[in-house]
Design a protein that fits this description.
Layout: H1 9-30, H2 35-56, H3 59-62, H4 68-93, H5 97-126
Helix pairs in contact: 1-2, 1-5, 2-4, 4-5
Length: 137
Amino acid sequence: VDSAFPRSPRGAVKIARALVAAAAFLCFVASRSRGAYAALAVMEVVITALFFLLYFLKLDKQMSWLFWPLADIFNSVIAAVFLLVVCLFAVIIKTNNGTLAGGVFGLVLLVLSVVDAVLLFQKISLDGPRGRNTSAK
């Protein structure tokens, strides 16, 4: 268990993403808005929680067959694109106040997804080369 991960910037952003996505989900469910809004929010909560657990339990070190930070960047970028489209529709259409609030939480979640991707990209690019440091002959 990596007890320092929740206090790190990446861990704090993951926690914030999960909480804001849960708030957006609750707003969408309470307003009885379309299923796509709530589905995107609940998927974001689940996927973010799974990545948080992956890093918190150090499973990324045990399952080294996939480069997990890159997969996390792809998740953040794809989530940001979907959140941009869906939450802009929610804010523009604003069938009621719950949908509007969920859309605003979704746009905040969009910003957190971009911040998470930037933090991960900096970690990948600043940690240096991976693997063996021997020259090819």
